[in-house]
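Z., the sequence and structure:
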Amino acid sequence: MCGRYASSKDPGKLAAEFAALDATGGAAPGADFNVAPTKRVLTVVQRHPQDETGEADLERTERSIRVMRWGLVPFWAKDKSIGSRMINAKSETVTSKPAFRSSIKRYRCLVPADGWYEWKREGGAKQPYFMTPPDGSSLAMAGIYSTWRENDEAEPLVTCSVLTAAAVGRLTDVHDRMPLLLPRGAWSQWLDPDQPDVSDLLAPPSLEIAESLEVRPVSTAVNSVRNNGVELLDRVSLDAREKAVGLDREQ
């Protein structure tokens, strides 16, 4: 699963990396090295632009960086608190689950990340690891989103979930699930608002993508959401028993 990740790039940098416009309107969250459920996060969407009357221009689309809350609240939900249990959607069942099946057809996004955290139980304790591209590029986690209103007069709440898939390659040594990572060549298809069927993109990430990531042991300080600083990304030394697992190797 993906329950914590890091996102340190500002909307301008992400806009350049994802060939998008910054549509955050100054409301973007700052650098966050311990993103947790229900926090505001940056996402990438592609929609038909609308004029002042709300009429969509179906002849073109516009890719933009938007702010959403992590933890999807379906449009039909009675209470937004359900979002805290909807941070992930399994790629194997996302098209059939009532909470997600509408979004996967019409409202898909990318969730940029520096990397994500996962915990491996070793000798009764859990050691956190940070999975990240060694070159500093952003991961594009497949996401879906939804718009919810408490009532007709309330401001809309836009929320998202990160899709997960079966882990592949040596990532299985840490956990059996991982975010559904999309390569650059798949971004346009995933974001296309006129393409309801993306079933061919729901398979686990390629072994090439998984093997390209650094699997970095980090401090247990990340266990607490109160801790949030770049030092959470620092590599820590493991004892001889943990090193024997073979995860503490440089890329």
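The first strand starts at residue 5 and ends at 7. The CA atoms of residues 7 and 32 lie 5 Å apart.

Let me know what you think.
H.
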